[in-house]
Specification:
Structural class of chain A: mainly alpha
CATH topology of chain A: MetI-like fold
Largest interface: A-B, 88 and 91 residues
Strand content of chain A: under 5%
Shape of chain A: globular
Number of helices of chain B: 12
Number of helices of chain A: 12
CATH superfamily of chain B: MetI-like
Number of strands of chain A: 0
CATH architecture of chain A: Orthogonal Bundle
Mean pLDDT of chain B: 85
CATH superfamily of chain A: MetI-like
Order of helices and strands of chain B: HEEHHHHHHHHHHH
Distance between the termini of chain A: 34 Å
Low-confidence stretches of chain A: none
Structural class of chain B: mainly alpha
Strand content of chain B: under 5%
CATH class of chain B: Mainly Alpha
Mean pLDDT of chain A: 86
Distance between the termini of chain B: 35 Å
CATH architecture of chain B: Orthogonal Bundle
Oligomer: heterodimer
Radius of gyration of chain A: 22 Å
Number of strands of chain B: 2
Helix content of chain B: over 70%
Helix content of chain A: over 70%
Order of helices and strands of chain A: HHHHHHHHHHHH
Chain lengths: ~270, ~260
């Protein structure tokens, strides 16, 4: 099959070559130097920062996305909200990269619309230590695709919450809190956590938005790799291969967690279909 | 709906619309008044036209290659080789694990000067193989859903018992039936390539997204105008999917998001 050949040539071979390249010197000798290097100094800092930003945006995006999805998609919501939110989410989740950075500069940059509005209220975020071009600025910007991504991913799980369960619970005298504590959350939790893992992976891999927003200075792993490959720094590309290899490991671990959670979540989905 | 429900709906709408409104306002701003000056500046820039049409061409070539690879593959998996499904599915999910930045570093490492015919080395079409790989999940899941909805075996047998060969069956019988899925995959791939910055930037090609970044470093209002244009492209692609008849709630293919 030509497909298999294509996948081998342009996906498996490049990824495999990086794995080997991560353990080689420029002269082709075996070394664990570069791989060990990713656990210290600025490389380790980059991983920590990348993981932090991905965890925070996954948790916040996941929580907000779920609350919005539940409000807009549950059976009690007006019918029009559903297609509107799913379409908006589809667009926003696919809108990323450099333009997203500029959209937020227009909004929360030093003279952005929201900044001016907040300033008029005497609450200029820049007077309180916030900057769009730092860590929390990037978090706010990433949420623009994380929240809608969560809405799309979690929608089937919300649709799977059966109205009968809620009715049964209230017939048996359960309060709303009890329903959520004993039915809603246990049923949805694997789906919510699994979706959050996907969000983690998406934000861990992101490059363009952070590059455009911080001019490449925020020190995340992808930016560091980019700098090593075509920055003006005279450096060993094999260091970049080791960093890239490390990224694949982190995302592979996340995906393994996702599959475990997804299997648990599918128990409820199966009974619904 | 409860009051807290409305609150979250409002939060969602605000988060989605405010950055767009702010960018739009900024793009029309011309000193103290408003005008189309920023847009005019962009459309008059020959570099805009060059990079935009380059990205357009890359998107079209990527879509054609991806369709040629995937339609026969998914057809075959559904018709004869279901045992290959796990392998194909695994390979198509793999781009989620290997992010664009890693993929392009690997491609640059493997396909350097000794390997690539000189003609293609300086050519932006160097990016197409990687773009096809990035589009794997979109194409596969869109086509897989489409094939699932039709009876591949019956259609194939009917076509062949009437004397059609494989090519004719695929072209005249199967393709019209899976067109929706093929178009959905094509629209998503289109949005992906039109926004893809990481690979182009690392391989040092000037595509539309790298042009947007370049303008962003130098001119603020035209950058806002380009952001609106880019957003419009994403809208068109997604509306295209709706238009060809996919229900928005079922687009599992959208998961994974666009170019970051």
């Amino acid at each position: 099959m030509p497909f298999l050949a294509w996948a081998a040539a342009f996906l498996l071979v490049p990824a495999g070559a990086l794995l080997i390249g991560a353990f080689r010197t420029q002269d082709g000798e075996f070394t664990t130097e570069f791989f060990k290097d990713i656990f210290k100094g600025s490389s380790l800092d980059a991983y920590v920062k990348s993981v932090e930003i991905s965890l925070i945006t996954a948790l916040l995006g996941g929580a907000l996305g779920f609350l919005i999805a539940y409000a807009a998609l549950s059976p009690g919501a007006p019918r029009l909200l559903r297609p509107a939110f799913l379409t908006f989410s589809g667009v926003a989740a696919n809108f990323g990269g450099v333009p997203l950075a500029f959209a937020f500069i227009s909004t929360l940059g030093t003279v952005g619309m929201a900044t001016r509005a907040l300033d008029a209220m005497g609450l200029n975020p820049y007077d309180h230590g916030f900057t769009l071009f730092g860590f929390w600025g990037l978090v706010v910007t990433y949420l623009y695709f994380q929240i809608p991504l969560m809405i799309i991913i979690i929608a089937p799980a919300i649709d799977g919450l059966k109205a009968e369960w809620r009715e049964a619970a209230s017939n048996l005298g359960a309060t709303s809190t009890q329903y959520w504590r004993y039915v809603g959350v246990p049923v949805l939790l694997p789906s919510i956590l699994g979706s959050m893992v996907l969000l983690f992976g998406g934000s861990f891999a992101a490059y363009a938005t952070a590059y455009a927003l911080t001019s490449g200075h925020i020190g995340l792993v992808p930016l560091k790799i980019g700098e090593l490959i075509n920055g003006n720094v005279l450096s060993d590309p094999h260091q970049a291969y080791a960093l890239a290899f490390g990224m694949v490991i982190v995302i592979a671990v996340a995906m393994a967690i996702y599959f475990v959670l997804d299997r648990r979540a599918s128990r409820w989905r199966r009974s619904v279909q | 709906m409860t009051r807290s429900g409305w609150f979250w709906v409002a939060v969602g709408l605000l988060y989605f619309l405010l950055p767009l409104a702010a960018t739009a306002e900024f793009s029309f701003k011309d000193g103290d008044s408003y005008s189309f000056a920023a847009y005019r500046e962009i459309f008059d820039d020959p570099q805009f036209r060059d990079t935009f049409f380059l990205s357009l061409k890359l998107a079209i070539v990527t879509i054609i290659v991806a369709l040629l690879l995937f339609i026969p593959t998914v057809y075959w998996v559904h018709l004869r080789l279901p045992q290959f499904r796990p392998l194909v599915q695994f390979l198509c999910a793999l781009p989620f694990v290997v992010p664009p930045i890693v993929l392009i570093v690997g491609i640059l490492y493997v396909y350097n000067y000794q390997w690539v015919p000189g003609k293609y080395l300086g050519s932006p079409y160097y990016l197409v193989p990687g773009y096809v790989v990035l589009g794997f999940p979109f194409m596969f899941f869109a086509l897989d859903n489409a094939f699932r909805a039709i009876d591949v075996h019956t259609l194939t047998e009917a076509s062949q018992s009437l004397g059609a060969g494989w090519t004719r069956t695929l072209w005249k019988v199967i393709l019209p039936n899976i067109l929706t899925g093929a178009l959905a995959g094509a629209f998503l791939t289109f949005a992906l390539v039109m926004g893809e910055f990481t690979m182009a930037s690392l391989a040092l090609f000037n595509t539309f997204p790298t042009y947007i970044n370049y303008i962003g470093q130098t001119k603020a209002n035209p950058a806002a105008a380009l952001t609106i244009i880019s957003f419009g492209i994403t809208w068109l692609a997604l509306l295209g999917i709706l238009f060809v008849g996919r229900r928005p709630g079922r687009t599992a293919v959208q998961v994974g998001g666009g170019a970051r």
